[in-house]
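Researcher: Re-running this chain for the archive, since the previous output was lost when a drive failed. Same request as before.
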Amino acid sequence: MQSSSDNQSLCGIREAFTGDELNALCKRIIASGILGRSKHYSALLEYIVKCSVAGKTPKEIELAVEVLNRGENFDASIDSTVRVYVHQLRKKLDSYYKSYELDAAYRIVIPKGQYTIAAEKRKAYIFATSQESVRGFAPGLSNKLLVTAVVLLLVNLIYMISSNQDNSLQASQVVAEHPVWNRILQDDQPILLVVGDYYIFGELNANGNIARMVREFNVNSRNDLEDLQFTDFERAENYLDLDLSYMPEGSAFALARIVPILEESGKSVNITMMSDLTTADIRENHIVYIGYISALEKLTDMAFAGSGLQIGRSYDELLNTKTEEYYTSDAGLPEEGEPFKDYGMFSTFRASIDTQVVLISGMRDAGLMHTAQALSDSVALDDLIVSIDNDTDEALASFEALFEVFGVDRLNFDANIVYAELLDASQIWTAPQPLQLN
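Model: Regenerated C-alpha cells:
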C-alpha cells in the first residue's frame, strides 16, 4: 500500500509523459543495462509501458502468460512469480533513477500492489537556514552564496546517507524475492543451514600422548573411526576420537552473505554441521548447504545423481560427462603472489515433495566465496537464470552451474559461468543407494 504522502507525489502518467516520451524512456532504461541480462525484466517493462500508453491496466494472469511464458493454468494464489518479478522491476527502476536522469522533473514508478506505471515528481529538499547562524563564518562571501553552499552540502550528505542505508536494507530483501530463492523462502517449511565440516582425530605417540591430529577422507565421523579400528586394528590402535571438526575459512564469508537472505523468510532457520545431518533432517527441512564439494558427504550421491558433472580423480576436479572436459582447481597450494584458478558449484533440486536442497559449494575457498557472492547478488542471479536459457518453474527447481574463478593469494578477483544445465531430477531417487545416514 502507498502511504498518503507517496500518493500526493504520484500523478497520472499522461500528465507527465506523452506516449512517445514514455516509449523513449523505456528504451533508455533497457539500454542502460540496469535491468540485467534477463529478458523478462525488459519484456515486463515494455508490456506495462505499452498498457499505460493505451490506458489499460493489465491483470496478473496476463503478465504471467503473455510476458513470463507461464501456462494458461497459472494460479496466482499459489504462484508468486509475477509479484516477485514486478517487485524486482520496481527496485530496478529505483536504482535507475539513482544513477540516471538526475535532473528529470518526473520519474516513472510501479505503485505497490499495482501492475501499472505512474509518474512521480522528483523530490526537492528545502532547508530553512538562518542567515544569522552563518553570518561572520566567511566574511568574504555573500550571505546568499553561503546559504546556497550549505544547502547543497546538506542535500548531498542526506542523499548519500539515505542511499547507503537503502542499499544495505534492500539488498537482501531483493535477493530473497528472486525466483532462485523464492522456492524455499515463501512457504512454511523450516530451513536447515548445513555447514560442511571435516572430522579430525588424534594419533597417539609411544607415550600415549596425542602427537598430531589427522584428517582422512574415509573417516568422517566417530562411527567411521570405530569401523576403521575394527577393520585395521594395527593401523588404528593409536587413533583417538577427539570430538573435533573444522570448516574452511571461506565458509565464514559465505555464511555472512547467505544468512541475511534466509532471515528475510521470517521462518525458523537452524544450523548444523554436515557430520550431524540425518535422514529426517533432509525430509523435514529445506536444506541450504555451504562448504567444499569434498565435504558434501551425505548429499554427494543426491547432488550428482542427475548431474551432468562427475567427481574426477579428486574433489579438486569435476568432469563434464557430455563434453568430457575436465574442470580442475589449482587453488590448493597457490604460491604467494601467483594467480590461480578455482571452481564454485551451485546446485538446487527437490529432496522430497515438500523440501528443496540448495548447494553453495566450491572446490576451495575462492570458488566457495564467489558462489556465495553470486547467490547474494540480484544481477548475478539474473545472469545465472539466463545461462540455463530456461526460467520456468520446473527448470528453476532443478539446475546446476559451475563458476570458473580466478584469484591471487587466496582472494578471488574475477569469475565467469562455464557450465549451466538442468538436472535430471528423476535420477535422484533411481540412482544407486546413497551413503548410509545416521
